[in-house]
Amino acid sequence: MSAPTTLDVPTIDSARGRAVMPTSDLRPLRVLPATRKVLVAFAVLTLLATNQLLVVASFTDRYFAWTISLRATSAFIGAAYAAGFLLSVFALRRSHWRDVRVALVTVTVFTLLTLVPTLVHLHIFHLWDGGWGARLAAWVWLAIYVVVPIACLTAVVKQERQPAGVTVVARPMPRWLSSVLAVQGVTLFGVGAAMFLGAARVHHLPEGAMSFWPWRLMPLGAQVIGAWLLALAVATALVIRERDLDRLLVPAVTYTAFGVYQLLVALRYWTQVRPDYQWGWAYIGLLLSIALTGAYGCWAATRRSRL
User: Fold this and answer.
1) Which of 33, 138, 154, 161 has an alpha carbon within 20 to 30 A of 120's alpha carbon?
2) Residue 173 DSSP SS3
3) Cα 47-244-104 angle, rounded to 5 deg
4) How far apart are CA 166 and CA 71, in angstroms?
5) What is the pTM assigned to this prediction?
6) 77, 224 contact by CB (below 8 A)
7) What is the pLDDT of residues 246-271, one digit of tens each?
8) What are the pLDDT digits (tens) for 110-124?
């Protein structure tokens, strides 16, 4: 549901014969401590994942939960975690639930989805093999994606169970922005669902599978990437539903960062793209449109404070 706002409707005091304001507090809901704890935990964990997948990505066999042989895959996932880090940090700077709802629901969707490939492909993780660093990373990953989804769901339920008021859209989004986000969201959902479901029942993707993706993927990596894309698709749907520029800053910053980071990854590792890949222009175009749409959202969300 959308966030409540103040509703000041006077009532008549029969004893004194004058109008009085209601005693019920319908101001915007505050962010609960449980929500802040989840966001802090996600910020720390995404920062660690970013380091492991971008800074020391050449040594995933020694320092990450599973071995990722192709640097383009580790870089894509690491860049997504970097965007997730910004999502958590900017959300922690907000005090009202209406400004944090999209962020927390996005985190919840991603962690729930990532639990699935974690359990399906458990044999790939360094739970019992590799050095102590790899084994530690694998067990920490497993613990995170068992505990964090539960914590996220609990926080969302607690926030949504607070007394709700009347929804007021302070600054409606322009229709063109909603349309662009809808197209991007449908695209992200379609690609993410194909990757997530297509890699769910196999241990090795056959040659030519997922030809819409720029480089070869292993099932676990494909599902984790798919989880990120699906989570972003849900975020776009929530933003369109909220349709308020005043609540757009946190998702817009995340959206911009995701687009920019993935563009940098594509440019850096374009040599690892399939030789027969024919959708390069579409892939770059989608990332560029995400970055530009997010940048506009950041500008629109902060414009009022500069006027």
Assistant:
1) 154
2) coil
3) 30
4) 49
5) 0.87
6) yes
7) 889 999 999 999 999 999 999 999 99
8) 999 999 999 999 999
